[in-house]
Amino acid sequence: MTLDSILGTIDTEIARLKQARALLAGTSAKPATTSAAPKKRARRRISAEGRKRIAEAQRKRWAAQKKATAKTA
Questions:
Q1: 35/70 same-domain check
Q2: Domain limits at 22?
């Protein structure tokens, strides 16, 4: 499940709970409108160069962590 779908599900449940509370409290609240599905945002694309920079940085972090672990052992 994506974050957007989780948030959409939570929003729908909140609307249902508010409506149920209004019915139990005896107030005539307008039924909440729920959207069928949350709007999907355009996915960000990362360039090959960007992926390469991220991978190199992660490898550098792993090497530093491995080096620090080797010193303590």
A1: no
A2: 1-41
* Exposed e or buried b per residue across 4-21, where buried means at least 16 C-beta atoms within 10 angstroms of its C-beta: eeeebeeebeeeeeeeee
**What's the pTM?**
0.41
CA dihedral over 58, 60, 64, 67, signed as positive or negative: positive
CA 51 to chain centre: 21
Same domain, 3 and 31: yes
pLDDT digits (tens, 9 = 90+) for 24-44: 888 665 655 666 777 788 888
CA distances from 18 to 1, 27, 29, 32, 41 (A): 25, 11, 9, 8, 27
Structural domains in the chain (count): 2
Higher pLDDT pick, 12 / 41: 12
Structure token pair of residue 21: 């509370």
